[in-house]
Amino acid sequence: MSIDVEAVRRQTRGVLGVTHLNNAGSSLAPGPVVDTVVGHLRREEEIGGYEAAEEAADRLEGVYSSVARLIGAAPDEIALAESGSRAWAMAVYSFPFVPGTRLLIGRTEYAGNVIALRQLARRNGLQIVVLDDDPHGQLDVEHLQRELDRGDVALVALTHVPMANGLVNPAAEVGRRCRAAGVMFVLDACQSVGQMPLDVQSLGCDVLAGTGRKFLRGPRGTAFLYVRASVLERLEPAMLDGHSAVPAGAGGLEVRGDARRFESWESSAAGRLGLGRAVDYALALGLDAVQERVAGLAEQLRAELAAVPAVTVHDRGITRCGIVTFSVKGNDARNVRTRLAEHRINVSVAPAPSAPADSAPTGTRHGPDLVVRASVHYYNTETEIQRLVSVLPGTS
Ligand SMILES: Cc1ncc(COP(=O)(O)O)c(C=O)c1O
After folding, report:
1. Is the pLDDT score of 215 beyond 60?
2. Ligand 1: which atom is nearest the Cα of residue 83?
3. pLDDT at position 355, please?
4. What is the per-residue pLDDT for 380?
5. Which residue, by CA, sits nearest to atom 16 of ligand 1?
6. How many Å from the N-terminal Cα to the C-terminal Cα in the chain?
7. Closest Cα to atom 13, ligand 1: which residue?
């Protein structure tokens, strides 16, 4: 079944005012998601926060089942969190690191994850090994294999869809090799979830983190963590509270057995319900159909951009996704973004795909390494894409 673009646009109020091509930043949420969030906030206003949560208890529980269904997991392997980074870190900081072991990461690992790994490496006496890209710009699985064969690997961390180079890393192949080597595989799916089908069994990951606001179209401040049941026991959370553990015996404690051991007690019930609604919305559309539409629109955008002499498209990889990166000769990426914003077209800027894995995170980047990032979603139209290309500097 293909996406009914008119129908999804009718449910997306934002498309009336902007051409939103910043879905890798934060999508326009559909009406049903916003209604769910606002509806719960109203109930909190009317009857009280705890009472509203009690009233919505079944629906809140249902969020875990929805997320589990989205990625082929069991509900007790799911934790909810306030950001993808925090979800990822809750699992990774809990790993029982042995000094002298090595962390294998890709060149396009998310910069925030790299910072966390550097701290862990410093604290625990670990070495970070940045794996090469293959000639297509994706993680070189042969290099991964050589490092796995050398041994002493604590974990492999991979960003499934890097924030800015258009490709999808070969996660299932990485998972297969990690499993064969008995090494834990941590997958950052923040940019892939919501724009393509994900299945933790075929991906072979032990940990997966996803965020709500990007291609899933959920509310800001929402995210989820998957931890495979068989590794849960090995990961005692770096932080505990009265939700994740209970006192036991004299001075002891018992950590809960499911993935909610990584959660904190307090959370936004409205946000969680909105996340669940966004997941259900994506599932109802079908992630295969979503991927087909998103990849098709992105290919159209790349083709139209490539036809403009002043434009260079930087995307790499064999399998591509909804993220398109480009630069316009003689124009700083930030100026291009400003110009597009004047036409009510939202894009973002990002480090060039050639930037190393440990490049500076958002906010501290410098001009020459920046590219424009336009990220499409299924609710965008062919006409919107043509508009973007037609108003670029040098084309009008
Ligand atoms: C690849 C990738 N991983 C992780 C994150 C972090 O997600 P969050 O901002 O929800 O912590 C981002 C955010 O841009 C991202 O692009």
Report:
1. yes
2. 10
3. 60
4. 98
5. 163
6. 38
7. 190
